[in-house]
């Protein structure tokens, strides 16, 4: 049975449906971003839908964190839904499937099913459910329920269909052998729903045209296509992208908190550095810092995604983050700098941004401007004459972009020092560091008073070292 990629919907509608049972990690960000970028690329809409039907594990603080993290990435859902509020729709779907003979009651316990699977494997048979529930008479069902057993409900796959096939947006032609699968459980003994049924019902009701998710769902898709066909005359287009692992190749889990979006935000990474790496890694596109999601949507297409897992190394974020900030104009960071107590306006930002990896690093360079200096290498006694000349020859204010050259030319003429022997003692005296922004630009911000005080302190330190 082949599923066509054609869709009766005139526009694109995608969804991201995380469960609020933990914090979103970088692996969850990948499908969220792929869906959002697909919607941007095609002028479609994006639904954020919380899969919160697991009453025991779902938590409201996780739900709040998902909303916060999605917003931090720059994703702005057009619609927000909670599956926990849609039970009536799922109940109605269950009734329809029962009436159609596609949902049947089973009474085996988990232990009984496990033993049955092991016996089948020992006999060289595939460990799939044998549909014993379908063979139960009404009297047998009543007897089992009299024992206190409650049924779980399985969806009867149409094995006569053979292979379910579809044209995958990422993987091309895909096929799942329905005969190799067990009839999936859709309703638990306690009446709660597994992921599969609510997902399909919601996709139908909400007009989802494209389902884009990780390739760990490929087999599920064969099952879900049959459920779609049992409930509707519409089946969405599917795309299964490769999944992310840690740098060491391990899978990511919400339960461990590894590489959570919240922790990456707290560590000071820019959202677009995270988004760029989360999307571009494992594709044929170069991994580079992309300034915004619109540009990223224009850069990457699902056909560029590899079929092999992609390894996410957070160390790669530093380079991307730095490149983003180096290219960021002052207006985009002005409020954030102000909130950190960093002044100096655009002049300071234009000097500092080439020397930072994370925005918080700007605080350190503002400290260099305003003082007191927090780092200071020991002064060299041999630098005392140079420092004394620097004090004597320091020009009067106002300082401008040419002050540094005029000043150091005068010091060079007076002392004979040049190159590193001239510039490094002055840099250490003025900044306490042996690296950093061009002093020609930094000197006007430091100002004459600070410069004179620092030179004097350095000269005293050099004299004491004699």
UniProtKB/TrEMBL annotation:
GO MF entry, a single one: glutamate-tRNA ligase activity
Catalytic activity: tRNA(Glu) + L-glutamate + ATP = L-glutamyl-tRNA(Glu) + AMP + diphosphate
Domain Aminoacyl-tRNA synthetase class I anticodon-binding: 383-456
Compartments (UniProt record): Cytoplasm
Span(s) of short sequence motif 'KMSKS' region: 251-255
Class of the enzyme per the UniProt entry, highest EC level: ligase
Pfam families noted in UniProt: Anticodon_2 (PF19269), tRNA-synt_1c (PF00749)
Keyword check for Protein biosynthesis: yes
Subunit structure comment from the entry: Monomer.
NCBIfam families: gltX_bact (TIGR00464)
Protein name (Swiss-Prot/TrEMBL): Glutamate--tRNA ligase
Gene field: gltX
